[in-house]
Design a protein that fits this description.
alpha/beta, globular
């Protein structure tokens, strides 16, 4: 499993986590969303919001605050997930991690990391590459479920509407009119030359 940043390449894979705590504790995802809103001052989300840099505590708080409801058998966040988030939050164009099946790599990175990355405004164009096309579109389906049905997430992050909504490609607009795009590809699909608004993907997640 991994990522390639700013249009370059790297690797990542499958999982599940949980455990809820005060969403406004230091480092939690709810606090990060609140911080973004407060940066706008009296204008709130009427003007573009500045990115909130990711760190393991922020991603863990995001999962606990907004995504824990997804998991049937919730358990404390595995230390391995924190290690992955620490790795993937580092600077660098190519980051790769490997682990056996059952370590919930996809949940930690392809789900939690990618969703928090776009919602905290660190990336606005992400490509998710899976081994098969059905696997790839399943991730898009998971993103859409949260972005369309998770009322707390929609309110806290200022999700306004979908500008594009297909099984393998979404473009979402915030209330400040900025946008992000997540596109899914199978591993045999061509990644080179894929641009949106004249720019290459910020990240490619494998």
């Amino acid at each position: 499993m991994g990522i390639s940043k700013a249009g370059r390449v790297s690797h990542a894979h499958q999982g599940q986590s949980g455990l809820h705590r005060d969403p406004f504790a230091l480092g939690d995802g709810g606090a990060g969303a609140k911080q973004m809103r407060e940066k706008g001052g009296s204008q709130s989300l009427l003007q573009p919001v500045s990115p909130v840099p990711l760190n393991p505590a922020l991603i863990e708080g995001f999962v606990q605050t907004y995504l824990a409801h997804k998991y049937d058998n919730r358990s404390p966040t595995p230390p391995f997930h924190r290690e992955l988030w620490e790795l993937f939050c580092q600077d660098g164009n190519r980051i790769c991690a490997a682990a056996p099946r059952g370590h919930a790599k996809s949940t930690a990175i392809t789900e939690a990391y990618v969703l928090s990355d776009v919602l905290f405004r660190n990336s606005d164009y992400v490509i998710v590459v899976s081994e098969t096309y059905p696997q790839a579109v399943e991730f898009i389906r998971e993103y859409k479920t949260e972005l369309q049905q998770n009322d707390q997430l929609i309110e806290d992050f200022g999700i306004k509407k979908f500008l594009k909504d297909t099984e393998d490609d979404i473009i979402v607009e915030f209330t400040d009119k900025t946008q992000f795009r997540i596109r899914a590809l199978a591993s045999e699909g061509a990644v080179r030359g894929i641009k949106w608004n004249k720019k290459r993907p910020n990240k490619i997640v494998f």
